[in-house]
Specification:
By secondary structure, this protein is of the alpha/beta class. 32% of the residues lie in helices and 28% in strands. Strand 6 and strand 7 form a beta hairpin. The radius of gyration is 25 Å and the shape is elongated.
Length: 199
């Protein structure tokens, strides 16, 4: 026959209360990636439209959905901060064609040497591909440019999640910084008729 033991019940309740008071360690905070410190690129169009064609599979080998700031989020912010429509007609269409990050497992060092070697365990390959189309709204002027940036990074075995996220964040930052330079050059070269000087 089961007998209710008040002392055991109170001890169990006390354990639950203590467990409920435990606070998890705060997750590391990352600075927001913004581009307002750079001058806006003023274009002769009335509106800006951002189209995200890249759809993350949310499954391995892709990892962009696990990153503190994904390349897609960062490059969208770039477009919002830097592309400034100042015209009375027409539109700018900024298309994110690819913003994936793929993880590849690396083979460990074989044999006895592998026991004393700290290997690089994964490689991350990130790619950004974007297109900018500007329509002047007058059925005569239209311009298109595209740009691509890629970065790769390997990480050592035994890395903690926080350490891995820091590497991912720096990777995204570096990737979008590279894309910023590519897009500036492409816009000056191929969208010159749409550039409007600041007054």
């Amino acid at each position: 026959m089961y007998r209710f033991n008040r002392r055991t019940a109170l001890a169990g309740l006390s354990g639950l209360v203590l467990a409920g008071c435990t606070t998890p360690a705060p997750a590391p905070r990352y600075p927001e990636l913004t581009f307002t410190h750079l001058p806006p690129i003023r274009l002769d169009a009335a509106t800006l439209e951002i189209v995200d064609e890249f759809k993350s599979p949310f499954a391995t080998p892709n990892v962009e959905h696990l990153m503190p700031v994904s390349p897609a989020v960062a490059i969208r912010r770039w477009a919002q901060d830097r592309l400034l429509p100042v015209g009375k007609a027409g539109r700018i269409v900024f298309t994110i064609a690819d913003a994936g990050v793929v993880e590849t497992s690396l083979a460990p060092t074989p044999g006895v040497r592998g026991v004393v070697t700290k290997d690089q365990s994964e490689r991350y390959d990130a790619r950004l591909l974007v297109r900018i189309s500007v329509d002047g709204g007058d059925n005569r002027r239209r311009g298109d440019v595209s740009a691509e940036a890629m970065r790769s990074r390997t990480v050592p075995e035994g890395l903690s999640l926080n350490e891995r996220e820091k590497i991912w964040f720096r990777m995204t930052e570096d990737l979008v910084t590279g894309m910023n330079g590519e897009l500036e050059m492409a816009i000056r070269s191929f969208l010159q008729p749409f550039l409007v000087a600041a007054s």
